[in-house]
Amino acid sequence: SQQGEEDPQALSIQEGENATMNCSYKTSINNLQWYRQNSGRGLVHLILIRSNEREKHSGRLRVTLDTSKKSSSLLITASRAADTASYFCATVSYGNKLVFGAGTILRVKS
Amino acid sequence: SQTIHQWPATLVQPVGSPLSLECTVEGTSNPNLYWYRQAAGRGLQLLFYSVGIGQISSEVPQNLSASRPQDRQFILSSKKLLLSDSGFYLCAWGTGGSSDTQYFGPGTRLTVL
Q1: How many CB atoms neighbour CB A7 within 10 A?
Q2: What pLDDT is recorded for position A6?
Q3: Which of A19, A59, A84, B23 is the most buried (most CB within 10 A)?
Q4: Chain B touched by A87 (CB under 8 Å)
Q5: Nearest C-alpha of chain B: how many angstroms from A101?
Q6: pLDDT at position B59 over 90
Q7: What's the rounded Cα separation, in Å, for the pair A107 and B85?
Q8: How high does pLDDT run on average in chain A?
Q9: Is B95 strand, coil or helix?
Q10: CB count in 10 Å sphere of residue B24
Q11: Dihedral class, residue B99 (left if φ above 0, else alpha if ψ from -120 to 50, else beta)
Q12: B106 vs A: CB within 8 A
């Protein structure tokens, strides 16, 4: 079963704009991860944030985690056409298995 | 560096035929291995995972089975495919543990007609 739910389901922006995707989950977690999937390809790990962390950065990516609201957000700044992909959050609870959400489809128009 | 291979890349099979998808990992030892299925426009559903040779855990009762005959080889099988088995199958490996990051193969697109 899916734990994470991404919002929005689809997002279309212009190149150079920022893109924000949200993820909500239901149970306590050990960490939360974000992955990217280009069309018809495997997933690529982007960033991991632990339950005791509130914010993390990696290049143009910024991830926040609010465990009281059971939610996370992924911000991509200064988006590029190459950022066009599906983005998934995945939670890790005790048991160490990833549970993926349904994903957000991001389209960056040049 | 580690790499993960899956084959075939695409497969079209008739209903009732058998299935064998293979996944191999290079550059690491004793990885955790995973099989996922992704329906169109959806997230990933974990089908099987393995923490060692011959050790398989099934997450969802279904028409499929998995085997791990060697440390870095993971096979997904079916004796008789159903229409509902169509989808995108992804293999992944990880080092295990609570902060495990998973590394995915390129996937196999299976169409059952």
Answers
A1: 15
A2: 85
A3: B23
A4: no
A5: 5
A6: no
A7: 29
A8: 93
A9: coil
A10: 18
A11: alpha
A12: yes
Residue B54: exposure state from Cβ atoms within 10 A (0-12, 13-18, ≥19): exposed
Q: Is A1 a residue whose pLDDT tops 60?
A: no
Shortest Cα distance from B59 to chain A (angstroms)?
10
Contact A42 B97 (CB under 8 A): no
Are A2 and A103 in contact by the 8 Å Cβ rule? The answer is: no
Between the alpha carbon of residue A28 and those of residues A100, B22, B28, the distances in Å are 15, 34, 31
Residue for token digits 């005791």?
A: A52
pLDDT digits (tens, 9 = 90+) for A36-64: 999 989 999 999 999 999 999 999 999 99
pLDDT > 50? residue A28: yes
Which of the four pLDDT bands, split at 50, 70 and 90, describes residue A2? low
Strand partners, B4: B25
- What pLDDT, on the 0 to 100 scale, is given for residue A3? 63
Residue pLDDT, tens place only, B5-57: 999 999 999 999 999 999 999 999 999 999 999 988 778 999 999 999 999 99
Chain A hits for B99, Cβ within 8 Å: 30-31, 48, 50, 92
Residue with token string 């949200």 = A22
In the numeric block, the tokens 């689809």 are attached to A10
